[in-house]
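tool_call: predict_structure(chain=1)
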Amino acid sequence: MLSLSYFKMALKPTEWVHTDPLAAGGPRPVFTLRYVEWGVCMTLLLALSCDPASERGDDDMILEPPAARERSAFVQQVHMIANIPVVVGNRISRMPLAPSARCTFIYIWSAWLALVVEDEFTRWFLLCASFAAYAVAALEQLVQCYIYWDRDGGGEWGALVLFQVFLAGFYGIIYLGAELNLYSWQTEQLAYTFSDVGAKFLHSSFLMSLHRQRNLLRLSQLRRAAYTAAADLQRMIRQASVPIFTVNMDQKVQDWNLKIEEVTGISRTEAVGHVLSDLASGDELDSWWSAAGDLLQDAMEEHEPNITEMTFNASGCLTYPAGTVMAVSATVLRGGSGEVKGAVCIGQDISAITAEKNRAQAVADGLTRLIEAANTPIFQVDLSDNIVVWNNWLVRTTGLERQAVLGKHISTVLSPGSKKKFQDACKKVLGSCDADLFEINLVNTEDQKRTLLVTATPCVSLSGQINGAICIGQDITRLKDLDERKASMMAMVSHELKSPLHGIIGLCSSLLDGNAAVEAGQVPRSLEMVYSCATRLLDMVANIMDTSVLVNNKKMRMSRDPVQVKDIIDEVITLCRTASNGRDRGPLLRPGVQLINNIHDALPIIEADAYRCTQLLYNLITNAIKFTHEGSVVVSAGYDDEEQRVFVEIEDTGIGIEKANIDRIFEPFDQEDTSESRQYSGLGLGLSISREVVRKHGGDLVVESEQGVGSTF
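tool_result:
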């Protein structure tokens, strides 16, 4: 401002120049531009001369972001100059000498008006007003100077304010001397010029030194505060209750706090300076270091933070045998100038949690293996009744592979009658959260049904939500078959007992009523028929008793008699040729059937129970004759010296047996045809008795049969 005003006065000296007509030595020139410069500059000097520390803070020091520090010096200087209006504006808005500035403005322009007016009274009135305003401004500045001197570090600012008071007074002396004509106007202007230049130079130098001193002091305070904060942070990290460590760009440990020493058992001296992977443990070190290295690299590259599990191996004794497991997160570590120096890692000891998780996982795996290997049906469905678990028992029993049924609706493996029953049971279980018991029928790949007695219970997730039902079953197919066989056996026994009993009752009733014919021989014939029916009943009871003894008494021993099997076979064949069928008292051997004995030579004598061998052969031969309508029944025998066994074959050309029923015919009270309208009578005990007799002699009874062709026992 001073330079511009002097440049303007030098360039056009006659502009902005007024005349003082009342001067003591005659009219004198008045340079108005000088008063304009004083009015602006003196006010600005008052604003810049206040101590920023006495107000809300220092806004003179412009803090730049880290990116601005990398700019060139020229750009920084331009930026600083551009911020000057901001700094000056802040100072003016909160300067403590605002009244002084107003008084300064008043006495400067009052002094100018006193020079240009033509009335003597007005002139002296303005002069008095000007010096009064100066006195008020000087008094306030002296008070402010006292305040500055009374505060630590405010003496320099007090001296600057005092300098301004004396400078304004000095200008007043030059002004009065010129008015009293003590020197020429040229001397006056020269004094003003040197005073302006000198005062502004001294004022600027003093301000610059004060600001530099203040900035250095603040920098020193900031440095001490930073050192204190760094020391506090280092102490806090060292004594923190969570594991904390730092690594450099080479991923070597730089700091290792007390908590991580306690948790891992690795001392600070053992850890600092070593690569982090040297402290790791576990068989899968490569995968561990890959995950940890990625975590640290992401932190140094300032990517999104992540969490990685790290396992540390202590040199001493650890609480957990597998090492200490920590969940670690990392963030970038910067230096004083903002450069990346490494990463800070904060961890949490999750060894106990990991151990519990591993134990829970082991239990879960054990339960999964138990479910898979259980010798009972176990399956699980979700809320939509889709299969999510299907154990090995179901795979073996139904023939449906696990991958083929998982995700499919349960109705695809249920019989039509079981679908609604299962859905109703699941709704009840999921609604009441109570277990339910019900029966279902599973269909296997061969369309055979398996009856299961199922207990369903809700399956609850970790969040407590019901996400389906788990079903544990019991295969009761055999029990259902036993019930059916029991009913069939009762019907069969009832049927077989009913015929002879009816015959006995009818014949006895006729004899008692005297209704029997008087023809010769009629009564004896009736008694003979009664005897035959009673014999049939006795045979049935005997067979039932034999079955009970032979099948149920596994420790029963046979007699050890010398037996010639050929003789027994000859006797049985002779008996069968003359035997009756027991139904219409016709011959057992039908007219179109030949009973052939192919045994011509004697067989080796064996030790056996003769009675049981006769019973065995009689059952087999009569059974073959009963089911053969035409053709032949051939009995043959042989022996094996090496195995010391005698074998007998009975081959017929009868109706044959279905392959699916071959095992059934050896079961007690079971026949291939179990209907009430069956063609062939009998309790179904002959073959079961025969097989038990053979097995108790150390042999076996097997059959080969083709339906419609014949059978060989």
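agent: Confidence is low (pLDDT under 50) at residues 54-64, 66-70, 315-322. Proceeding to next step.
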